[in-house]
Write a structure and sequence with these properties.
The chain is mainly α. The chain is built from eleven helices and two strands; from the N terminus they run ααααααββααααα.
């Protein structure tokens, strides 16, 4: 019978991580310097697309920090779940970089989300048990009415249904279009496998240290793709040489893992 091993933080795993990933830690200052150039700056958005690309990218960077914490504590499965989120933020940021005209679609979908949550709250708890706010309900419904045509479609039976996303394209199609297709399985589907209950999640158990190393490697590469986006979208020329250094470091750090 397997033993329950419940921990919050693992000093032994952290010690092993520092030894196992010594090269990654040694090269980390270059990566941090690139992130400072990209995000620690006076920022003035010229349009909505600029705002969204910057803010989504910042969220993507934060996910990398979370993945690092998990991997350092040998929590590889959890790191892959966060990696999926990191990948989605990167894909959306890149997609809006290529299609700034879709920015309002991304923002306006908030009204669909708010309406969906409000309706579900009423179904779950009943109107009588919820705090009464006619003004709030009226505002949610009015905002939804303004955008519902944009985010709905007709089924074959003629019934109108609300779309489940702000974009007509799914995450896989968007990832392919923005040049991240080769990472779909590694950064997206493996995270889904870990996040959702399935026989794969139960039966396909591997060494925690190995899984954590893979998650860190893939997220490291996604972070470099994020830096490339910052250079492309905002024209940060000072990022160009340091991105080159980051790519060289990536190859050196992860060569043995790629071979394995």
């Amino acid at each position: 019978m397997p033993k329950v091993n419940f921990k919050i933080g693992d000093f032994k795993a952290q010690k092993v991580f520092r030894k196992e990933h010594k090269q990654f830690i040694e090269h980390l200052p270059t990566l941090v310097e690139a992130l400072k150039i990209a995000f620690n700056r006076q920022y003035q958005a010229s349009d909505l697309a600029d705002t969204l690309v910057f803010d989504l990218s910042k969220e993507c960077m934060d996910r990398f920090s979370e993945i690092g914490l998990l991997c350092a504590n040998e929590q590889g499965d959890a790191a892959f779940i966060i990696l999926r989120s990191m990948f989605e933020y990167l894909v959306c940021a890149r997609y809006l970089h290529l299609h700034p005209e879709k920015s309002s679609d991304f923002v306006d979908y908030l009204h669909v989300h708010m309406h969906t949550v409000h309706v579900q709250l009423q179904r779950t708890y009943g109107k009588d048990r919820l705090p009464s706010s006619n003004e709030y309900e009226a505002r949610v419904n009015a905002n939804f009415e303004k955008v519902k045509e944009k985010y709905s479609y007709k089924t074959q039976s003629g019934k109108r249904k609300t779309k489940s996303s702000w974009s007509d394209k799914g995450m896989v199609d968007m990832a392919t279009e923005v040049g991240l297709g080769e990472y779909i399985v590694l950064a997206y589907y493996l995270g889904i496998e870990k996040a959702h209950p399935s026989i794969l999640a139960v039966a396909n158990k591997r060494a925690s240290k190995e899984v954590a190393s893979e998650a860190l490697m893939i997220s490291h590469r996604m972070l470099i793709e994020l830096l490339i986006l910052q250079h492309q979208h905002f024209g940060l020329e000072e990022l160009k040489p340091i991105i080159g250094q980051c790519l060289e470091s990536f190859t050196q750090i992860w060569e043995k893992y790629k071979k394995a």
